[in-house]
Each structure stands twice: as structure tokens, then as C-alpha cells.
Amino acid sequence: MRNTIQQLLNGIFIGSIYALFGLGYTLVFGLLDVLNLAHSEVFMLGAVVAYSLVALHHVPFLLAVPLGIAAGGLLGLVIEFVALRPLRRRGAPPIAALISTIGLALILVALIEQAKRGGALSWLWRDGANDVQFPAGKVPDRIWHLAGLTLPVNKVAIVVITVALMGVLAYVMAKTPAGRAVRAVAENPRAAQLLGVNVDRVITITLVASSALAALAGILFALALNDISPYIGRDQVELRGLAVIVLGGMGSIPGTFIGGFTLGLLESITILTLGTDVRAVGFVALFVMLILRPSGLLGRPATERV
Amino acid sequence: MRTTSRIRWWGTAGVAVALFASACGSSSGTASSKGKTLKLGAVFSLTGAGGVYGPQQQQAVKLAEETINAGGGVNGANLSIQVVDDASTQTQAAQQTQTLIQQNQVVALLGPTLSNSAVAAHPIADSLKTPMLAVSTTGLNIVGTCPYPCTYIFRDSLGEAAAIPTNIKTYVAAASPKPKTGVLLYPNDDKFSVDGATAVKQTVTDPAVGIQLLDTIQFSKSDADLTQFVNQGVAKHPDVIFITSLGGIPAKIMTAARQQGFTGQFLGGNGFNSAAVSKQAGNFGKGARSASAWYLGNDFASNAEFVKAFKAKYGTDPDQFAAQAYTGVLILADAAKRAKLTYTDLAGDRQKLRTAMESTNIQTPLGPFQFTSTHDVHQTIWVIAMDGQGGFSLVTSVKPS
User: Quick check: B55 and A128 CB within 8 A?
Assistant: First the structure.
């Protein structure tokens, strides 16, 4: 029984990371109909920047977190101005933008995995392809033991942060002028422009917000799982992030939230009931969802996304 | 400053010359091939999952190349080693191997870094009758019993089939009380890890070991959070947790298991034998044991001089992967020295080199080194344990039978 509860908690912990990662994905998709596949590299770079500040430059962790998020936001600007806007201006199809973000993602991973001690980027990363972790004692690492359950404070904090951010994002989208502008652009960019909405600015702000969320997710992932490497975004969360937004409904913020926790819990329940030999259950759920309800759990017609 | 650099250069060169001379024993060493170039290739994983190991291999190979050339080359011939990146993928490993053999016309190759890539690259080298020396592939069927002839394939990396049983048996023999139960964790989408798991499963059934496997837990190397899998294992209350995996996975498992209250022993394979892994595991990994082809602290001359030269050139200690790659170049250079190469008949030179490699008997950083009749390693096995501070301590050594 104790193992069952522990595994369900584990599912909630990892599900909150999937949800947080997926939120950024879904924001951009809801607005542009484009999958930003550099999102997972912003996730990685958020973790790398925070690690660099703490481990190499001795910046306190609580200051490194907002700086890492800010670096993620800046990368959002790079994605918009380098990978997306030039193509949008030329009226390129969404697939061109998707490929453009893949290219940017490959460049970002290569930059980090080639960064070594003594190299030009050694102020940011010195460990090449190696996995590293935040130095002990420099980051919160308490573990609560409650009724035989193991509750790392970091993982509990991630759940709280994810729930709070989902609430804030849902409120901003539904109740504020900025949210209304985003929804207007998502529905029809040309009509929004005619009504006085600065479409480019809305897209830029959304990409910055999405990338800042990815960076935060990366930092929390690195903290909770003791793992930072050039590949944490690509190998460990990218595919699951995609599964989450399809499960929850492409472009739906509450759907992504539910999709993240659903996937995390599904993985845990599978281990508990079917053992560790049964794999990829999340993707089986994805196929079932696509067959039974292609728009996802909370997905709506494209005109009502976000 | 300039004087210091010069002294360091001459010091390194001196060590290099001494090291190569000792490695090559009393071979003829005439400068009959002066003006020629002995072209070798190396296929390493400089990026991707194997990028944890490839860069050190590249550094070691370059050090060996400089060392040998500073000592007069190979019978006077200049040694030139072209290192290429296989990006940790099978397709690129195969493509790079073929290019080095057919386009760049190398006499022999080192690599690839990963067993996963070796299954694609080695058959190509073998079919093109070019010696390829595996310097870090430790999986099953790399040499000896292969699904193809593998007559041109050699290995100087200690296979999991030898390393894991040695580690487990020496641990059980010394342990008090004797461990009775174990749980095995490994990613099932990686050849190295699966082969290591096979070695564990076979060893625990040995009557001299007698450990009951309570559970075999498989996961994917791309799983983000291993806590769920570790939880399943720890809940069985085993005496030992066996881990056969590469990269950061062993450290993640050790961390999660200790956080969940596991107090038993971690036993593993070559995947433990990297300072990066020991550093990542930190205090959670203290005492984790594995069998290794090499130990940093060995003070016999061929190792001490290698460690000194590596540290002088790169500013850090080498690791097992560097030591094996360096040894690989020594083996090829020694064989080339004895093989009476023509430098005009490439196919004939490759055949001569292969024959000469079979009678290798040199001092290396790994210790005295020979090949078995199946081209596998015949060397001392060093059992080491993580020291909790990013390094290792020597537990015991087992001489080859």
C-alpha cells in the first residue's frame, strides 16, 4: 500500500514537469499553429544557465532561478526573430517554421555539448556531453519522510508551482486585455490587426512567455532529478511534452495541465499494475485519444483555441 | 612563463619517448620507413550519448600520436590518426568507418566508442579486411562469437562478460554477511546495458554466488525520472542493487535508492568507471563497486608515465576510456613496427598488421597486455569502488588465468 501511494506521488511529481513543459508548447501552438521544437532546448538552456550561475559563478540559487528564466525569455526573442518571423513575413507554411525551429534546436545542443573547459563557452558550460548536478548544499535538497513515504521538497514545490502557474495563465488568458489580444490573434491574425492589435508584438510576447516557462521547467527538472546535460530536453521530455498537449487538447492550457498529470500517473499506474516490462503506455493512450477524441481531452475547434 | 612551457614540453616529450620505448619493447626500431606515413583512423562518439566518453578517447589518441612521433615514429614512419565523430549513432558509425577505409585508405581503425555502434561498424571493417580495434566496446559478441567472421576485429576493452562476474564474485567472497538477494535495474534499449544485464543474470545463478534476483526492472534510457523504477526495486528490500547502464543513469539510480532508504551494496559494470559518473553520484555512490580494465592510481611505469603525460597536456586526470584508447594506439603502433609494412600494398599491409596484432605482448597503462586467441583482452582486472568524492579506490585485482 505504501509503495502504491509512493508511486502515485511519483506520477504526480513527474506529471507536473510534463505539464509545465507542455504549457509553453501549447501557448505557441495555440497562437501560431506551429510546433516550436526548439522549446526543449530552451528547457535545457534554462537548466544550464541556472547551473552555471550556481556552480561556476557562485550566485545564490534563488537569484539564479529568475536569471535562468530571463535567459529563457531572451531565447524566446531569438526564436521569434531568427527562426519564425522571417518565415512568417514570407508567408511560409507552418512546416517551414517547424523545420526552422528544429535547426535552431540542433545548433543549441551542439553549442552546449561542444563547450569544454578552456573553450569560448566555458563561462557557461564546461562539461561537454556529461551529466552534472547542482552542487550539494547550494540548492534546496531536503527530503521529508512522512509515514514511510519519501517526499523531496523540490518535487513538492514543482507541483505547487505548476498548479499556481496554470491558474495564473488561465486567468491572464481569460480575463486580461493581453489574454484577449492573444486569443484574437490566435483566432484570426488579420482581423485582430484590423482591430488595432499589434500582431507581431503579441506573438513576440507569447514566445518570450513560453520560453520563460520552458526555462523554469528546465531548472525545476534539473533540481528535482539531479540531472543537467545537453540532452535533458531532447531525450527526456520532448516526446512526452508532445504527448501531453495532444492528450490534453492542442492549444488548451487546462488541457495541457490535465494531460501532464494524466501521463505521469499513467506511467506510475502501469508500473504498479503491469510491471516495468510494459513500456510506452503514454503513447498507447495518445493513440487511443487520437482515435476516440482527436481534439484531446479539453480540445475545441481551432477557432476557439487558447 | 615561456621557460616553464618549454620545460613542460621537453618533460612531456621525454616521458613520451620513454613510454613508447617501453611499450614497444626491443623491436627492431630502425628508421627504414622514414618519409612514409602510417595512416590510422578512429571512430569515436564525440557528440550524442557517447559524448561522455569520446572526447577523452580523442585526447588520449592525440597524446599517443604525439608521443610516438616524438619518439621517432613507427620505424621512422610518421603516425597520423584521423579522428571522426559518429554522433553516437549506428548509421554514422558505419558511414564513417567505410569512408576512412575506402576513401582515406587507413591501415587500421580504432573504435567505435559504443557497443551499439560497433554492431554496425565492425562488420564493415571486417568485410573490407581492415583491422579495427575496439577500445571501449564491452558488450557481448564484439569479438570471438560474432554473427559474422570478425577475423579483423580486436578488443582492448574489458568485456562485461568478464568484468561483471569478477566484480560480483570478489564481492560475495569478501562480504560478511553474504548477500542473499538482489534487484537488477537496466535500460532495455541499449546493447551495452542489456549485455551487462545478461552477465549479471548468469553470474547470480553460479553456486559460488547464490544471490536470488527478486526483480529485474527494465526502463528506457530516455525515461526522465527513474524514481518510479527504483521505488519498485527498493520496495523488495534487496541486499544488492545491480545496475548495468551508461552515462548518468547509474548515478541517478544510486541517488534515488539512497533517498528511499536503501542501505545495501551497488554492483555494476564498466558504466560506473568514469570520474563523471562517480562525481555525479557523489556520496550516494560511495562504495559502489565495479571491475575495471584500468586504475588511475596504479604506479607501474607504463601507467604512471601515461597519467603524468596526460595531466601535463590536458590539465586533468585521464579516465579508463582514455587509458584504453591510448593503449589501442600503442598496440597498433607496436604491431605496425613488427609487421614490416610496405606502404605500397594497402591490402597486404592490413593483412600483415592483423597477423602482427595477434602476437601483441606489451606493457601498457592497463598493465601487461596480450590478446586471447579470439582477439579479446588478456589482462589484470582491477576491482574499484567509488570514493564518494568523484574518484575511485582500488579494492582488489585479479590476474588473468
Answer: yes
